[in-house]
Amino acid sequence: MKTIACFIPALLLCINLLAQKPFTLKVSGVVSKPLQLTMEDLNAMPGTTALLQDRDGKSHTYSGVPVSAILTKAGVTTGKALHGENLSKYLLVTCADGYEVLFSLAELDSSFTDKKVILAYKADGVALPPSKGPLRLVAEGEKRPARSSYQVVALAVRSGRER
C-alpha cells in the first residue's frame, strides 16, 4: 500500500512535466523570417558575456546570445542597410508578466555602437532561476537596470511609421 501511495504522486509529477510545453522565444514583426527559438536553439548560437550591476551595486557576469545575432537570424535590417527609413525601426521586448521595454535598432547594431545587449540564460555561470529566466535581457553599461528585463518571452520589430 505504501508503494502505491508513493507511486501515484511520482506518476502525476511525470505527467505534469510531460504536459508542459518547452520554452520558445517568439521573434516577429518587421522581419523576413519570423522565429520560434527554443533554449536549444539559443544555446547553439554563438554566445557572449555582459556585465550588469544589480540595484545593490554588485556586479554580475551574464552569459547568453547577442540580441543582434537573433535579429540577424530573423532577417532584420542591419549594418549598411540600417539607414533612412530603417532608422525608425525599433525592438519591443516583452516579458512574461507583460512588462515591455524598447530599443532602437541602431542601439543594437555593432555598426552604430559597441554597447552589448544580450539575452542571457546564465548569471555568474549558473542557469537563471525560474523567477528570473529562462531568459533575461541584459543591457550592459546602462546607469539603471530598468531595461534589463526578466523572463523575456518575445521580441517584436516594429516601425515608427506604423500608425
Automatic annotation (TrEMBL):
Limits of the Oxidoreductase molybdopterin-binding domain: 20-141
Protein name: Molybdopterin-dependent oxidoreductase
Protein origin, superkingdom: Bacteria
Protein keywords: Signal
Leader sequence segment: 1-19
Short name of any one Pfam family annotated for the protein: Oxidored_molyb
